[in-house]
């Protein structure tokens, strides 16, 4: 079990390494989480949790060079959990489908109706489809990189991306 | 009008731009030797939930191991696989009575990624501790049983009597049979005696009687291209054969595949750059013939001669009809069939052209079809519900979308149907 993290000098080293990684990549990862979630505070929480998880498991990493990949995957996992919890909460609250969720409404003000509509549709996609599109069209990752990040085959990346684009197009069409 | 891709890029960048450079809050790491602070409003530290979930997962997996007949969660490969399963029943309408589905986003939230989840590389690394699949009754759309697999499920397939899953743990794929118990309310999950594979697994198919699994992998070789491998392995004793692409074919890739009725011939899609040989085509490989050249078989349908952009076909169990989906048309796809024979192919026949607007329950379909009858008159295929991102499985029956009862069931993302040769007729007894 990873516990609270490394101790002693190893702990200091881990703290320094994780802090340096955070300083270099936190903004980029928060941006990724904002794209996924549309909610800045939640995005910051997800990224903080991901780095805390990295710190706790630092001694278990076989290759520190892969830490960024680990933390990016953790951010995606965290976003997935948040979106799932949000969907559950919204179902329980039986909100009107015509009403934009609070996060989307706020985002519409910040980035404009068109972009908010696209992102809202994006968040309606199944997890794998949404992640494939964001990794492909926001992070501009290659198919092998997406495959590695999502833990799926390259062929599956192709089919998932294709399906996701078709599904998103349909959602956008329906929202006109 | 911008493309959907452009709109995604623009929207994502606009959202990202709301986070200014240097605006990340200070990092707060757990203090060594001190009780971690509690999150506002919560009674547990942030990682208590993941650990609790992980503990629950371990419990679930352990329980399924106890219930299942021979699940081996480690890397030990059993010497003998399960006896072949008797064919599953059909519905009154002659469709497979049960199918397997990976629920969308089934991976368990909260499970700690673990050491395997360290980042990039050609081998899929992101694993969850388990994934739960659903066995769904075709005529009701209800889940009749679940099967918990001890890792991340990358591919599923079906024979007439059983379902199969490839599960990745620690960067290695292992293979499991999922059998619906006699009372149809529970499953037995059994690890198969197939050698684990560390290459990224792409597509998988089961022979009709479940005695063989075929799967493709792609091994990347940097700038010199990729090598595509096909493995056909016995589910009974693990014996296997492997085919690979010669270096000159390294720019192409295999697509979806399916066995024909005899369980010997394997149809697969091959996609390569235009103007190169072999051209993109639906190919047929005799898995009993000697040799290891993946391209030793023949092309039965060349994609360049077909309408639209085609990624994959499903060949009928008798090998005579290929059904594909042409995309690239505005907001529309067309499902069509092509008769293939040694004498050549005939003009494609439209099976279903979804209307552009909301007049139909579905308005676009995925490739390749899940199952095709021998004449091509009946096709099971995943389609998108109109004005929704939901994926539905529908039966195209002589050009009409049949309103199957489970059309309104929970949307499924990935499904596997048992093989049948035609509506109401079980598949071959061989293969």
Spans of at least 5 consecutive residues with low confidence of chain A: 94-102
Low-confidence parts of chain B, pLDDT < 50 over ≥5 residues? 32-74, 105-127, 407-412, 421-431
Percentage of helical residues of chain A? over 70%
Q: Total number of helical segments of chain B?
A: 2
Strand residue percentage of chain A: under 5%
SSE succession of chain A:
HHHHHHHH
Question: What is the share of helical residues of chain B?
Answer: under 10%
Shape of chain B: globular
- How many individual β-strands of chain B? 27
Question: What is the mean predicted local confidence, pLDDT of chain A?
Answer: 76
3D shape of chain A: globular
Q: Summarize the largest interface: chains and residue counts.
A: A-B, 96 and 85 residues
Rounded mean pLDDT of chain B is 70
Largest sheet of chain A: none
Structural class of chain B: mainly beta
What kind of oligomer do you see? heterodimer
Beta-strand content bin of chain B = 35-45%
The count of strands of chain A amounts to 0
How widely separated are the two ends of chain B?
51 Å
How would you describe this protein?
The complex is a heterodimer of chains A (176) and B (431). Chain A has 176 residues and is mainly alpha-helical. Chain A has a domain at 1-99. Helices cover 77% and strands 0% of the residues of chain A. Chain A has helices at residues 8-37, 40-56, 67-93, 102-111, 113-122, 127-138, 143-150, 154-174. The longest helix of chain A has 30 residues, at 8-37. Chain A is globular, with a radius of gyration of 18 Å. Chain A starts with 7 loop residues before the first helix and ends with a helix. In chain B, the strands form 7 sheets. In chain B, strands 20, 21, 22, 23 and 24 form a 5-stranded antiparallel β-sheet that branches. Chain B has 431 residues and is mainly beta. In chain B, 50% of the residues are buried. Residues 32-74, 105-127, 407-412 and 421-431 of chain B have low confidence and may be disordered. Chain B has a domain at 306-419. Chain B has helices at 4-16, 48-67, and strands spanning 98-102, 131-137, 143-149, 152-158, 163-169, 172-180, 187-191, 201-206, 212-220, 226-234, 240-244, 253-259, 265-271, 281-286, 298-302, 313-315, 321-329, 332-339, 349-352, 362-365, 371-372, 378-385, 391-397, 400-402, 414-416, 420-422, 425-426. The radius of gyration of chain B is 23 Å and the shape is globular. Chains A and B meet through helix 1, helix 2, helix 3, helix 4 and helix 5 of A and helix 1, strand 4, strand 8, strand 9 and strand 12 of B.
């Amino acid at each position: 079990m990873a516990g609270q993290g490394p101790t002693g000098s190893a702990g200091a080293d881990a703290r320094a390494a994780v802090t340096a990684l955070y300083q270099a990549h936190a903004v980029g990862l928060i941006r990724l989480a904002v794209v996924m979630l549309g909610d800045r505070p939640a995005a910051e929480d997800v990224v903080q949790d991901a780095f805390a998880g990295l710190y706790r498991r630092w001694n278990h990493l076989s290759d520190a060079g892969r830490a960024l990949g680990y933390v990016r995957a953790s951010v995606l996992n965290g976003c997935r959990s948040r979106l799932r919890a949000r969907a559950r909460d919204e179902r329980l609250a039986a909100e009107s489908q015509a009403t934009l969720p609070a996060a989307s409404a706020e985002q519409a003000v910040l980035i404009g109706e068109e972009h908010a509509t696209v992102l809202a549709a994006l968040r309606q996609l199944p997890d794998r489809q949404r992640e494939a599109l964001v990794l492909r069209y926001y992070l501009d990752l290659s198919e092998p990189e997406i495959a590695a990040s999502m833990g799926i085959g390259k062929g599956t990346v192709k089919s998932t991306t294709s399906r996701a684009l078709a599904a998103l197009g349909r959602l956008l069409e329906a929202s006109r | 009008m911008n493309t959907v891709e452009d709109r995604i890029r623009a929207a994502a960048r606009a959202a990202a731009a709301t986070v200014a450079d240097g605006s990340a809050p200070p990092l707060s790491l757990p203090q060594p030797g001190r009780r971690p602070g509690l999150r506002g409003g919560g009674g547990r530290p942030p990682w208590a939930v993941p650990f609790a979930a992980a503990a629950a997962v371990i419990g679930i997996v352990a329980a399924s191991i106890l219930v299942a007949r021979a699940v081996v969660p480690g890397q030990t490969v059993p010497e003998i696989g399960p006896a072949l399963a008797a064919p599953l029943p059909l519905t009154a309408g002659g469709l497979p009575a049960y199918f397997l589905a990976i629920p969308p986003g089934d991976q368990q939230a909260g499970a700690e990624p673990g050491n395997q989840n360290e980042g990039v590389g050609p081998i899929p690394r992101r694993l969850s501790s388990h994934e739960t699949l659903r066995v769904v009754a075709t005529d009701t759309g209800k889940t009749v049983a679940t099967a918990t697999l001890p890792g991340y499920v990358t591919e599923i397939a079906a024979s007439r009597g059983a379902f199969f899953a490839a599960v990745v743990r620690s960067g290695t794929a292992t293979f499991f049979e999922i059998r619906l118990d006699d009372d149809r309310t529970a499953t037995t999950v059994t690890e198969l005696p197939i050698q684990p594979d560390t290459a990224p697994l792409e597509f998988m198919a089961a022979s009709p009687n479940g005695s063989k699994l075929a799967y493709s992998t792609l091994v990347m070789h940097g700038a010199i291209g990729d090598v595509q491998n096909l493995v056909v392995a016995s589910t009974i004793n693990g014996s296997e054969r492997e085919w690979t692409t010669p270096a000159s074919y390294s720019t192409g890739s295999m697509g979806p595949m399916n066995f024909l009725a005899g369980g010997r011939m394997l149809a697969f899609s091959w996609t390569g750059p235009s103007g190169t040989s072999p051209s993109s085509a639906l190919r047929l490989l005799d898995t009993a013939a000697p040799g290891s050249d993946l391209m030793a078989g023949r092309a039965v349908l060349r994609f360049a001669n077909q309408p639209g952009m085609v990624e994959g076909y499903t060949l009928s169990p008798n090998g005579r009809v290929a059904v594909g989906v042409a995309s690239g048309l505005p907001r529309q796809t067309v499902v069509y069939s092509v008769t293939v024979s040694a004498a050549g192919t005939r003009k494609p026949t439209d099976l279903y052209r979804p209307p552009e607007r909301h007049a139909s329950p579905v308005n676009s379909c995925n490739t390749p079809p899940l199952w095709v009858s021998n004449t091509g008159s009946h096709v099971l295929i995943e389609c998108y519900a109109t004005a929704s991102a939901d994926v539905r499985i529908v039966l195209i029956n002589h050009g009409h979308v049949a309103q199957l009862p489970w059309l309104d069931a929970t949307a499924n993302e990935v499904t596997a149907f048992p093989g049948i040769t035609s509506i109401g007729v079980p598949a071959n007894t061989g293969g």
